[in-house]
From TrEMBL:
MULE transposase domain mapped to chain residues: 266-360
The protein, known as: Protein FAR1-RELATED SEQUENCE
Domain of life: Eukaryota
Domain FAR1: 61-145
InterPro entries in the cross-refs: FAR1_DNA_bnd_dom, MULE_transposase_dom
């Protein structure tokens, strides 16, 4: 499976937009107060001219609820303020409004865009201390699907219960996949959740802080020096923030470096194995020798899992291995990894691990009528129990 092949459906789920569109941004709740409000009867209505709301938040909540029920994403456009800097009116529109734009520098592989000038929108204008719908267009020029609403970014959110569960399980050392699985079990299935594993992982990354105790960073450095005194070819790098906080660490011993010289064809990279007391994901590079055995080719500890962090780690590993990139690298379906691999290993073949693909099938396809047939076909094709 090619990692750079993105179907129209996947592009719709990711809802890719250009960052330089200053007047367009996704509608999200500001704080948890909106999450705890009960759904009012008005949420069952469709937008129509003259419909009144007590506040801007109520108007946004109403339109988002309507969009989720119908199966389309929401963006905010054309916000205007009066001379007193009070909000005069704003527009909420279908996220497929606007012309398609492509930012890829490679004309043969343009980034996908879901924009197709959809006309659906509602304009909310101030009426005293309230807001009302002054103009509305409900028709779309593309198919919409309520069953796929949960995949749209603007409809994904973590409620207070989910956040607390994630934090407690993370503090107990429970791995991310099992942590997310517990939420799936509590909700009664993937289709009952308004978020995915990626949102859970991102939330924990935001809440985690690498709080090294007094002398811990120095102790790590001293340990590396001791290893280097015993093994002259021992390689290590430490990424330190401007405030002196240790962010990321990479190391590889002489055996790993020598092994890579002979077995550099295919490398697997994963960050889902375990975390330590500092909540730093362990990130090993693993190869396969001529006996079919897994061999360690270096590893790191990361404080984050964004593109910049992976770029730092991949460059560190490449430097360690005499700037000899692998022919192929296998990872999970992580966009940040994909971006970093394209930057550091542009000539390497990037593939997705079948285990991770199979793990995502229930979450992504369970709502389809032929889900069991699709799952069975994958299992038989790849001989997965």
């Amino acid at each position: 499976m090619e990692s750079n092949l993105i179907s129209d459906e996947l592009a719709e789920q990711n809802m890719i937009f250009q960052e330089d569109d200053a007047d367009v941004f996704f509608v999200e709740e500001n704080g948890d107060h909106l999450e705890d409000q009960q759904v009012e009867p008005i949420m069952m209505l469709e937008p129509k001219k003259g419909l009144m709301f007590d506040s801007e938040d109520d108007a946004v909540k109403f339109y988002k609820g309507y969009a989720r029920k119908k199966g389309f994403g929401v963006v905010r456009r054309t916000t205007r303020y009066d001379e007193d800097n009070k909000l005069h009116y704003f527009t909420l529109a279908c996220s497929r409004q606007g012309k398609a734009q492509y930012s890829s520098k490679n004309s043969f592989k343009p980034n996908p865009s879901t924009r197709m000038q959809c006309p659906a929108k509602s304009i909310f204008s101030r009426r005293g201390d309230k807001f009302c719908i002054s103009s509305v267009t409900v028709g779309h020029n593309h198919p919409i699907s309520p069953s796929k609403s949960r995949f749209l970014r603007c409809h994904k959110k973590l409620d207070l219960h989910a956040k607390r569960t994630l934090e407690l399980n993370d503090q107990a050392g429970i791995r991310m996949n099992k942590n997310f699985g517990s939420l799936v079990m509590q909700a009664g299935g993937y289709d009952k959740l308004q978020f995915g594993e990626k949102e859970c992982r991102n939330y924990l990354q935001e809440t985690r802080r690498l709080q090294l105790g007094a002398g811990d960073a120095h102790a790590v450095y001293q340990y590396f020096l001791r290893m280097q005194s015993k093994d002259p070819d021992f390689f290590h790098l430490m990424d330190v923030a401007e405030d002196g906080r240790l962010r990321n660490v990479f190391w590889a011993d002489s055996r790993s470096r020598a092994t890579y010289e002979s077995f550099s064809d295919v490398v697997t990279f994963d960050t889902t194995y375990l975390t330590n007391k500092y909540s730093m994901p362990f990130a090993p590079f693993v190869g396969v020798n001529h006996h079919g055995e897994s061999v360690l080719l270096g590893c790191g500890l990361l404080s984050n899992e964004d593109t910049d962090t992976f770029v730092w780690l991949f460059k560190s590993w490449l430097c360690c291995m005499s700037n000899n990139p692998p022919n192929a690298i296998i990872t999970d379906q992580c966009k940040a990894m994909q971006n970093a691999i394209g930057e550091v290993f542009p000539m390497a073949r990037h593939r997705w691990c079948i285990w991770h693909i199979m793990k995502k099938i229930p979450e992504k396809l369970s709502g389809y009528e032929k889900y069991e047939n699709i799952k069975y076909t994958f299992q038989m094709r790849f001989m997965i129990p």
